[in-house]
Design brief:
By secondary structure, the protein is mostly helical. The protein has 6 helices and no strands. The protein is 82% helix and 0% strand.
């Protein structure tokens, strides 16, 4: 602003100064160059961090709010069969306990010879477990539909059957190995 006033004054008084004073050659160009340099340094962009913060903070807060809000909706509360009947809850707990114990048994019997069999059975069990989780979601949505309850119970029974089948296969393999070892001696 001050530079603008000087420029304006200099432009208006240019002829008068030339007549009264003799300036060295190139003085006018050097003077204008200095004024332009001062202007360019003043025009550098200044970052106002308060304005940036005033915009970013509400955006961050809103995004966190929406992430938390939608994340809680995407994780529905777990439903149990006990919510529909105490007897069903007992059965579900019994099956869950049996599955847990049989998985421990299978893992304890795992060795290099039956590793593929154990891995395959545990993969089947994982698939059944995912199906079980989906059935529980369906049960919640259906409001306790008896057909969905029956499907949940069937799924739990299938999980136990898969584990029992693997245990039987491992036992048969061990018996065959023992009898073949006895025949060798």
């Amino acid at each position: 602003m001050m530079e603008d006033k000087w420029k304006e004054f200099f432009e208006k008084s240019k002829l008068q100064f030339r007549n009264e004073f003799e300036l060295p050659k190139g003085h006018e160009e050097r003077f204008l160059q200095k004024l332009n340099e001062q202007e360019s340094t003043k025009k550098k962009v200044t970052i106002n961090y308060w304005k940036i913060a005033a915009v970013l903070i509400p955006i961050c807060m809103l995004s966190i709010y929406f992430v938390l809000e939608f994340d809680s909706e995407s994780k529905p509360t777990q439903v149990n069969l006990a919510d529909y009947s105490p007897e069903l809850g007992e059965a579900e707990n019994y099956f869950a306990y049996m599955i847990k114990e049989k998985v421990k048994e299978v893992k304890a019997l795992e060795n290099p010879e039956n590793k593929k069999l154990v891995d395959h059975s545990l993969n089947e069990l994982d698939a059944l477990q995912k199906n079980y989780t989906q059935l529980l979601k369906d049960l919640k949505q259906s409001g306790g539909n008896p057909q969905v309850i029956k499907s949940v119970m069937t799924n739990l029974q299938l999980q136990i059957e898969v584990l029992e089948s693997v245990l039987n296969q491992i036992e048969i393999k061990q018996e065959i190995k023992q009898t073949s070892d006895e025949n060798i001696f």
